[in-house]
Design a protein that fits this description.
Number of strands: 2
Distance between the termini: 38 Å
Oligomer: single chain
Strand content: under 5%
Helix content: 55-70%
Keywords: Disulfide bond, Membrane, Metal-binding, Sodium, Symport, Transmembrane, Transmembrane helix, Transport
GO biological process, one term: amino acid transport
Structural class: mainly alpha
Number of helices: 23
Protein name: Transporter
Largest sheet: 2 strands, antiparallel
Family: Belongs to the sodium:neurotransmitter symporter (SNF) (TC 2.A.22) family.
Membrane topology: Multi-pass membrane protein
């Protein structure tokens, strides 16, 4: 069923009355075949090189979650045994959805809003929901990058500030067990790294919770301003500038990961961490929650449904081999997650050796705490700690920036394609306005209790909403637009139709995969979120998803035409597709 045709696409045979031989496409191939039916115009930006596109997709998909989320979920759900449900969910759920979005964006050459005019107009609200969700992501995700920038600045010291308990922010519970013997570690003990993160970076002790988040941390606000400045000048000119930036931001993390992997493997006790990471617990395979976690992990890791893949692939040449791109980038993403597990757990084994405890007692931290407490703590007690701290936080910053580029490009492409008359020649101003909105929307996450806000936005602003949006997108394409029509679209680009495997996945398996996915639970440190905050969270989630039914009602009530024309019949306009009509 899988047609492994990793080659340049064949020349399609023109059929039908509209088929014609257009001008040659100067895409990524030296001798590309002429394109039938439609030809690209010069009005839309194009990637300068194929690698610009691939690195942008890899940079978006490989983010901080690959480093902190996958290793934790892997050992929590059976170690090496977890790789079985993970691979199964990737093959039957994640990769087919990834391939679907790349193909949709490349064929229709438009963003997440206007693309629905050509697929199924009544579902156009999905595009607006995607943009709102992308805004929520920008409100909290860039704050995490700002935390990494704060650490990066603090790393330029001969002695890292989270090495000992002699700082102004430390408490009597601070316990430094490195380089000391007979140190007692109890439930009240806090490492220097933990107190640096919670009491110096976040200053979360000055907040009583969401009902009193405290003031804005000016140091973090300055870090966030620098992050958004980089983002603006990377995106303001379109894919021709962002495509160059990703050559650094998408490749540097792999250099750093390799260095940290070598260093971790040479630490005493590293083997304990690797055994703990990969030792299979086969009984876990019979637990439904393990398969659900695998589905959620692969979905949030590859990132279909966020509109980013639609946007990035819309700047490709029409005959680009998006099938090969989907397979290659998905493999890179999954292998990066697997490699990150070794980088993390060799260090956790080292810490367990130093504390004289089991690895599972050290590996309780998850999420950002794994990157901002556990790993920095280990780095601080290595030889050459300053160097390793600097490159580690450079890696975190670049991993985050790539995903920010993709998320904001999804909004930019979607809105500019939907309103070209107003924004066609005003990209720089529009991007500036968008960045300002994202910066202002992030201010609540920069307060003393900002970490609570970050977790709330991550769970309710993105988690459940994006799964629901991805589910509806898969249903709309497979069942309303039609799997036959979609397969013909791919054939017109690649020269061959997708195999039966892909069709079955798109029609049934992938939507079912999304139906069982679920976001991680709402939990941060020992804080119990009050009931009213859960209500606020549901309102935040509804504020993105509500655009889908709202637009459906609008389409049914206020637009002219028959019921079929208003709901499922695609609107065919050559100019809206950025294509030239063929005589």
């Amino acid at each position: 069923f899988l047609k492994s045709k990793f080659r340049e696409p064949k020349t399609p045979t023109p059929t039908g009355s509209l088929s014609a031989q257009g001008p040659s496409n100067t895409g990524y191939n030296n001798n590309p075949a002429p394109v039938p039916v439609i030809t690209q115009t010069n009005s839309r930006d194009k990637w300068s090189k194929k690698m610009d596109f691939l690195l942008s997709v890899i940079g978006f998909a490989v983010d901080l979650g690959n480093v902190w989320r996958f290793p934790y979920i892997c050992y929590q759900n059976g170690g090496g045994a977890f790789l079985i449900p993970y691979i199964v969910m990737a093959i039957f759920g994640g990769v087919p959805l990834f391939y679907m979005e790349l193909a949709l964006g490349q064929f229709h050459r438009t963003g997440a809003i206007s693309i629905w005019k050509h697929i199924c107009p009544i579902f156009k609200g999905i595009g607006y929901a995607i943009c709102v969700i992308a805004l929520y992501v920008s409100f909290y995700y860039n704050t995490i990058i700002a935390w990494a920038l704060f650490y990066f600045y603090s790393s330029f010291a001969s002695v890292l500030p989270w090495t000992n308990c002699d700082n102004a922010w430390n408490t009597e519970n601070c316990t430094n067990y490195f380089l000391k013997d007979n140190v007692t570690w109890n439930n009240y003990s806090r490492s220097p790294a933990e107190e640096f993160y919670t009491r110096n970076v976040l200053e979360i002790h000055k907040s009583d919770g969401l009902h009193n988040v405290g003031g804005v941390r000016w140091q973090l606000m300055l870090c966030l301003f620098l992050i958004f400045t980089i983002v603006y000048f990377s995106l303001w000119k379109g894919v021709k500038t962002s495509g160059k930036v990703v050559w650094v931001t998408a490749t540097l993390p792999y250099v750093v990961l390799f260095i940290l992997l070598i260093r971790g493997a040479t630490l005493p006790g590293a083997w304990k961490g690797v055994v703990f990471y990969l030792k299979p617990k086969w009984e876990k395979l019979f637990e439904t929650s393990v398969w659900v976690d695998a589905a959620a992990q692969i979905f949030f890791s590859l990132g279909p449904g966020f509109g980013v893949l639609l946007a990035l692939s819309s700047y490709n040449p029409f005959t680009n081999n998006c099938y090969r791109d989907a397979i290659v980038t998905s493999l890179v993403n999954c292998l990066t997650s697997f490699m990150s597990g070794f980088v993390i757990f060799t260090v956790l084994g080292y810490m367990a050796e130093k504390r004289n405890v089991n690895v599972e007692d050290v590996a309780r931290d998850k999420g950002p705490s794994l990157l901002f407490i556990t790993y920095p703590e280990a780095i601080a007690n290595m030889t050459g700690s300053t160097f390793f701290a600097i490159i580690f936080f450079v890696m975190m910053i670049t991993l985050g920036l790539d995903s920010t580029f993709g998320g904001l490009e999804a909004i930019i492409t979607a809105v500019m394609d939907e309103y070209p008359g107003y924004l066609a020649n005003r990209r720089e101003l529009f991007v500036l306005g968008l960045v300002v909105v994202c910066f202002l929307g992030s201010l609540s996450t920069l307060t003393n209790g900002g970490a609570y806000v970050v977790k709330l936005l991550e769970e309710f602003g993105v988690g459940s909403s994006i799964i629901a949006v991805g589910f509806l997108e898969a249903i709309a394409v497979s069942w309303f637009y039609g799997i036959t029509r979609f397969s013909n679209d791919i054939k017109s680009m690649l020269g061959y139709s997708p195999g039966l495997f892909w069709k079955v996945c798109w029609v049934a398996i992938s939507p079912a995969f999304l139906a069982v996915s679920r976001p991680p639970p709402l939990q941060l440190f020992d804080y119990k979120y009050p009931d009213w905050s859960i209500t606020v969270g549901y309102v935040i989630g509804a504020s993105s998803f509500m655009w889908i039914p709202i637009y459906m009602v609008y389409k049914l009530v206020w637009t002219p035409g028959s019921l079929k024309q208003r709901t499922i019949m695609p609107e065919i306009h050559a100019d809206s597709l950025n294509m030239s009509p063929v005589p």
